[in-house]
Amino acid sequence: MGARYLSIACAALLMAGPAVAQDRGRPKIKVVATFSILADIARNVGGDRIEVASLVGPNGDVHVFTPTPADAKAIAAAEIVVENGLGLEGWIERLVNASGARAAVVVASAGIKSRLADADHGRADPDPHAWQSVADAQIYVANIRDALVRADPAGKAFYQASAAAYLARLEALDQDAHNALGKIPADRRKVITTHNAFGYFGAAYGIAFLAPQGVSTESEPSARDVATIITLIKVEKISAIFLENVADPRLLDRIAKETGTKIGGRLYSDALTDPGGPASTYIDLIRHNVHQLAAALAD
Amino acid sequence: MTALVKFRNVTLGYERHPAVHHLDGAVEKGTLLAVVGPNGAGKSTLFKGLVGLLKPLAGQIERGVLRTRDIAYLPQIADIDRSFPINVYDIVAMGLWRNAGLFGGIGDKDREKIHDAVAAVGLTGFERRSIATLSGGQMQRVLFARLLLQDANLIVLDEPFTAIDAKTTDDLLAIVHRWHGEKRTVLAALHDLDLVRTNFPDVLLLAREPVAWGPSNTVLTAENLLKARQMCEAFDDQAAACVDAA
Amino acid sequence: MLIYKALIAPFFEFEFMRRALVGACALALGAGPVGVLLMLRRMSLMGDAMAHAILPGAAIGFLLAGFNLFALTVGGLAAGLVVALLAGFVARTTELKEDAALAAFFLVSLAIGVTIVSLRGSNIDLLHFLFGSVLALDNQTLVLIASIATLSLGVLSVIWRPLVLDCVDPGFLRSVSRSGAPVHTLFLALVVLNLVGAFHALGTLLAVGMMMLPAVASRFWVRDITPMILMAIGIGMLSGYAGLLLSFHTAVPAGPAIILVAGLVYAGSVIFGRVGGLARQLFPGRHLEA
């Protein structure tokens, strides 16, 4: 007797399942972003209507990424591919073609006023790190929202509301950044970093980011490298050093002592951290960087 | 006559095989003793035991009041690194080390002694020469000069004149006699029986077991020499444990 | 003026260059005599083995306290001494000679050390252990290196005679004194001490270079031991100075640059040295009258 009731209950549940699922509408839109920052932004715009995968994951380096067949498969299954553009992903075009090119490719940085990579050294390549400027990130949001609306017109209202909410948060973030960094005295607005990734950030908030030329920081430093860094710091009157690639803390210490500068914490440029880390979302990343800079440059 | 060293039923050897078997006797103070015997007779082994480099397998070697600093030993094949950048003067000076100690400097008196020793062995002018450039005979003279400086009561020489030219041998023998005259006790392992007969009053004829020990003319008889030669040279792997072992 | 700019100015302008130079010179002062004695005692490769042996100790120090000078030094010392004593023990009590015993131990040590560093640190950390950071010498490290040099010279001057004797005529030393073994152990301790000092500046792979290369090079110029030691110290200091300049004017990392220069001096000595150099062997000149 009990078994019969059980099987009826199961059958009922089974039939109810799809009915419940019906509420969510069609299956999720598959979106593949090239790296973690774009993926996070996309997630914030698309919410549960989309499913986002990222080719270069947290802590990964999108500059040296080489795609694998698994990545081609992911792209083949996607409806939207979000790339940064500005020359960041040299490999994306080939990858999309190779995988059948079914997806719509969104260039997140479309419409942004781009900067040159080494503006003071006259190189012609664009600087791809536009997301470092919150104002430009807002344009990213708009581009992604529009692409999602094109692919999924039924969700238009949802995407617009979602994007608007996120844009508001970004606006607040921008405001906070201006407040925090605005307090820094004019003569302390220069820092040295290893990676030339903060041009947009610097332009937006009035901080000069300088990187030593020709210094190889992954391997053992030579005396010339150290001298170059120290000379740059002294000549440009830099106030804080964010040289996370000079991995020997003692050498960093020595440089700081000899130049009278402060050692800053780690700045994140190209990737989010793992979920437990200090920069696991785009907003956290910017907040973290602002905080580090404000702390190091305060008097 | 007082005994400087006493051998009480001493057996010395390697890996339980005896090279010196049941030696009893005493070395009197002031003796000039030659130790002779065929190859493998145990002469070097005996000397190593005497100076303390080898522990007896059985029996005792009683050195009485002799301390390490009172014995000067010249091994058969000196373990000297001839390529080491050191000169004659410094090697000879080592003889003084025991007295000068770790901290002691070499004073003027010591310097004089070193020069005298070098002169005594006929090597004046060789002081700054690197030992790598010396001939066998010259090296031996240097070692004798060092022995001179050691100022020891007991001097033990293991085949000091092997492969040395006649002139050097004569000169060094003169030093041996000088020591004897100074009432020091000298033991020397030697092969040249004529040399022994003419220079050494006492002889120990050793062929693993002592064959004879006493004045040279009584020991070095044809009979004794034959007995000694008949001794087996190699260790016997089949040998049983010695019954006499104390 | 150009000479000044190239050879002197870098040290005037930059404090880190001055510190590196002082550190390198202090190292040369301590390691030079020890290196000469190692070479003369036919223990050159053992010096290399000891340098690797200190790695696991330093690595454990790193694991516990990061780049802390005290932890690294004590760890390195302990590991070095343990390996030295173990190898000596095995050599004395078994058939294995000291060189083979040491070879076995140091290889294991190196592997353990690399593993430990990789556990906590990154590849860069490992590089620092292997290659040091002569450009990052802070005050404590400089004081440490200088103290080691002073202590080294002091101890050496005291145990000088038995040490030399132990090389030239160990049989004689054994027959007049029992200090052979303790002196040998003390000497090994000095080797380890100097290697630990060099390790901070040059890393475990290059530390022994400062010890051996100047010593071996000096062998080709002088015949007597005291000039040999002075020459080794001089070559060591010169290598430090020239190596730092090399690293300053080109992009060669500093530690390896110093050892490179020392290596060049060695090569030059082999070819042109007055005592047994190749050139002398090929073109000996007329023999003397007497």
Q: Your description of this structure?
A:
The complex is a heterotrimer of chains A (299), B (246) and C (290). By secondary structure, chain A is an alpha/beta fold. Chain A has 10 helices and 8 strands. In chain A, strands 2-1-3-4 form a 4-stranded parallel beta sheet, with helices on both faces. In chain A, helix 6 packs parallel to helix 10. Chain B is of the alpha/beta class. Chain B is 33% helix and 25% strand. Chain B contains 9 helices and 9 strands. In chain B, helix 4 crosses helix 5 and helix 5 packs parallel to helix 6. The longest helix of chain B has 16 residues, at 166-181. In chain B, 40% of the residues are buried. Chain C is mainly α. Chain A binds chain C through residues 214, 216, 218-227, 230, 247-251, 253-255, 257-258, and chain C through 10, 13-17, 19-20, 66-67, 122, 124-125, 127-128, 131, 133, 135-138, 244-245, 247-257.
Q: Strand count, sense and closure of the main sheet of chain B? A: 6 strands, mixed
The CATH class label of the largest domain in chain B is Alpha Beta
What is the arithmetic mean of pLDDT of chain A? 84
Q: What is the total domain count of chain B?
A: 2
Helix fraction of chain A, binned, reads 40-55%
Query: Strand count, sense and closure of the main sheet of chain A?
Result: 4 strands, parallel
Average pLDDT of chain B, to the nearest integer? 86
User: According to CATH, what is the topology of the largest domain in chain A?
Assistant: Rossmann fold
Using the coordinates above, name the CATH class of the largest domain in chain A: Alpha Beta
Largest interface: A-C, 23 and 34 residues
Low-confidence spans of chain B: none
What is the count of distinct domains of chain A? 2
Strand order of the largest sheet of chain A: 2-1-3-4
Rg of chain A: 23 Å
Number of strands of chain A: 8
Helix content of chain B: 25-40%
The portion of residues forming beta strands of chain B comes to: 15-25%
Describe this protein with a few key phrases:
heterotrimer; A: 299 residues; alpha/beta; Rossmann fold; 2 domains; four-stranded parallel sheet; 10 helices; 8 strands; 47% helix; 11% strand; elongated; C: 290 residues; mainly alpha; ABC transporter involved in vitamin B12 uptake, BtuC; 83% helix
Please outline the helices and strands:
The complex is a heterotrimer of chains A (299), B (246) and C (290).
Chain A: H1 2-22, E1 29-35, H2 36-46, E2 50-56, H3 69-76, E3 80-83, H4 92-98, E4 104-107, H5 134-151, H6 156-182, E5 190-193, H7 199-205, E6 208-210, H8 223-236, E7 240-242, H9 249-259, E8 262-263, H10 282-297
Parallel strand pairs in A: 1-2, 1-3, 3-4, 5-6, 5-7, 7-8
Chain B: E1 3-14, E2 17-28, E3 32-36, H1 43-51, E4 58-62, E5 71-74, H2 88-93, H3 97-100, H4 108-120, H5 136-150, E6 154-158, H6 166-181, E7 185-189, H7 193-199, E8 202-207, E9 209-215, H8 216-219, H9 222-229
Parallel strand pairs in B: 3-7, 3-8, 5-6, 6-7
Antiparallel strand pairs in B: 1-2, 1-4, 8-9
Helix pairs in contact in B: 4-5, 5-6
Chain C: H1 2-13, H2 15-40, H3 44-65, H4 69-93, H5 98-120, H6 123-131, H7 139-168, H8 170-176, H9 180-218, H10 225-249, H11 254-272, H12 278-282
Helix pairs in contact in C: 1-2, 2-7, 2-9, 2-10, 3-4, 3-5, 3-9, 4-5, 4-9, 6-9, 7-8, 7-9, 9-10, 9-11, 10-11
